[in-house]
Design goal:
Blueprint (H helix, E strand, L loop, with lengths): L8 H49 L6 H21 L1 H30 L6 H33 L1
Helix pairs in contact: 1-2, 1-3
Length: 155
């Protein structure tokens, strides 16, 4: 956290924050991908052991499709164990959290950039939608009140 100086200090801080969030996200995605690679590594070892046992027994499959079927069953088992593990869930949570933080930091930068153009930002549009909603609600209430008054005058 280096203190920023000058008139553009806010923008410098936001750029630094976005760079930090991006680096954290890069690290988390690398950790997550390495966790996803573990079933492939384990399956390769198990497959090598099974092929060695089949070779010792003299009953090797003749077709590549049979090897593929064995490989898929082993790999599927390892992935099922991974997906059920709390380590996977926590790593996925951390990765998605880091992604969300990076997206928010990037959004702040984009809003700053769009302010210099004659384009409404997301915040401007949200404010406009809220204003329209409140106006519609008020018109409905006024129309209901007008109907009540005219109904009372007729009685």
């Amino acid at each position: 956290h280096i203190p920023q100086l000058g008139l553009t200090r806010l923008y410098q801080e936001r750029m630094s924050e976005a760079a930090d969030k991006f680096n954290i996200f890069q690290g988390k995605i690398a950790e997550f991908l390495s966790l996803l690679y573990l079933p492939f590594e384990k399956s390769s070892k198990v497959m090598q052991e099974q092929v060695a046992k089949m070779a010792d027994g003299g009953n090797l499959p003749q077709k590549a499709k049979e090897y593929y079927g064995i490989w898929i069953k082993i790999l599927e088992g390892h992935f099922m164990n991974l997906f059920k593990s709390p380590e996977y869930t926590e790593e996925l949570r951390q990765t998605l959290s880091a992604l969300g933080e990076f997206i928010l930091a990037r959004q702040k930068i984009l809003e700053d950039l769009l302010q210099s153009f004659p384009i409404p930002t997301q915040r401007d549009m949200d404010d406009l939608y809220k204003e329209i909603y409140l106006l519609k609600r008020r018109i409905r209430e006024l129309e209901k009140g007008k109907k009540r008054v005219s109904a009372e005058q007729q009685h």
